[in-house]
C-alpha cells in the first residue's frame, strides 16, 4: 500500500519549492533514495526513528522504510475546471491521489508576483482553488445524477441510494463548500459516495508557506487560513518552504540539525508533513524485523492481524494462522527477540487482533 499525495495551489505559492525540499531530503536508507520518476513525481521515505533503533539491535542487512509518492501538480488556475491552464490534465492527476496538500502563500515578497498582480491574500487563494475543484465535482455529479435518476425511476435500489448521495453532495457544493463536509451513516451510502471519486472528498492538508521569521509561530496570513480550516475541520501546518529547501540541500545530518535548532524547529518540515499526511489518512506502521531486513509496512488504523498480513503477501492473509507480536517498547527494553521471549513478553494473537502502530509482527501461515 503506497500513499500518494498531490501538491496543489495557485502559481508562485511555493509548490515546487516544497516539492524540492521534500525530494532533496536525503532518504533514510541508502537503498531507497529519492527518485524522480517524472520531473514532478517523486518517491520519498517515511521518516521513522524506530527503524533505526531496531536496526541497532538486529543488525539487519538493510533498512526498508515505508514510502510515499509526491506529485507536484502545476497549472491550476482560475477557470481550470473549464479547461483553462492545464485544466483537465491536472484534475486527472488529483483524482489519482490519496490526499491533497494544498499550499497557500503566506509570505510577502515583491519579487514574487501573485496571479493578477494584486496583494497577497491567502483566503482568496484558497477559495480560488477550492472553487475549481468544487466546480469539477459538480460536473461529475450532474452527469451521474441524470444517469442514476433514470435507473432509480425504473426501480433500481442502488441507484436510489446513489441519487440520495448525489443530491446531498450537490447541495453543499452549490453553497461553495467541499464535499467532504457531508458524511453518510449507512454502508450503502458510504459505498456510493466512495464510488464517485470526487476531488473535494479527498482528505486535505493546508500548508501555509511562510517566510523564515515566521517558521516557528506562523503569521497573520497563516492564522487566517488556520481559522477557516478549523471551521471546515481540516488540518493545517506552517512551513517555511524556501528555508527548508536550503536545509534539505545540506549534505550532513549535523548541519541540518544545527540549522533547525537555530530556527527553533525541532523537526524538519518534511518530517512534520509526512507524519501529518499519515495521520490525515489514518495510516499506521507495523514492522518486521529479521536478519535480512528491518522493514516498515503501512496499514490503516483498525486493521486486524490477517489484513495486515495481507499487506506483505496475499498468501499470508489467506493462510493466516496466528501472529507473534512484540511491542516496540518491549523490543527496545529487552534488546532482542530471544530476550523478549524469555521475559514472556512475546504475544500470540489470533485473527481478531487489532494491530497497533509500531507493533513488530511475525505471521504464521499455511499455504
Ligand atoms: N520570499 C519567499 N519566497 C518564496 C517562498 N517560497 C517560495 N518562494 C519563491 O516564490 C517563487 C515561486 O515558487 P515556486 O515554488 O516555483 O511556486 P509554484 O509556482 O507554486 O511551484 C520562487 O521564486 C521561490 O523561490 C517563501 O517562503 N518566501
Ligand atoms: Mg511550480
UniProtKB/TrEMBL annotation:
Q: Does the keyword Amino-acid biosynthesis apply?
A: no
What's the name of the protein? Ribosome-binding ATPase YchF
Q: Which organism is it from?
A: Prevotella micans F0438
Which amino acid positions bind ATP, per UniProt? 12-17
Q: Name all TGS domain ranges.
A: 282-365
- Transmembrane ranges, per UniProt, are none
Extract the Pfam families matched here.
Answer: MMR_HSR1 (PF01926), YchF-GTPase_C (PF06071)
**InterPro entries tied to this protein:** ATPase_YchF/OLA1, Beta-grasp_dom_sf, G_OBG, GTP-bd, P-loop_NTPase, TGS, TGS-like, TGS-like_dom_sf
Specify the OBG-type G domain's residue ranges.
3-259
Instruction: Give the required cofactors.
Output: Mg(2+)
Q: Name one GO cellular component term.
A: cytoplasm
User: What are the GO MF terms of this UniProt record?
Assistant: ATP binding; ATP hydrolysis activity; GTP binding; metal ion binding; ribosomal large subunit binding
Per UniProt, the keywords (alphabetical) are: ATP-binding, Magnesium, Metal-binding, Nucleotide-binding
Regarding protein family, the annotation reads: Belongs to the TRAFAC class OBG-HflX-like GTPase superfamily. OBG GTPase family. YchF/OLA1 subfamily.
The opening ranks of the lineage are: Bacteria, Pseudomonadati, Bacteroidota, Bacteroidia, Bacteroidales
Function, please?
ATPase that binds to both the 70S ribosome and the 50S ribosomal subunit in a nucleotide-independent manner.
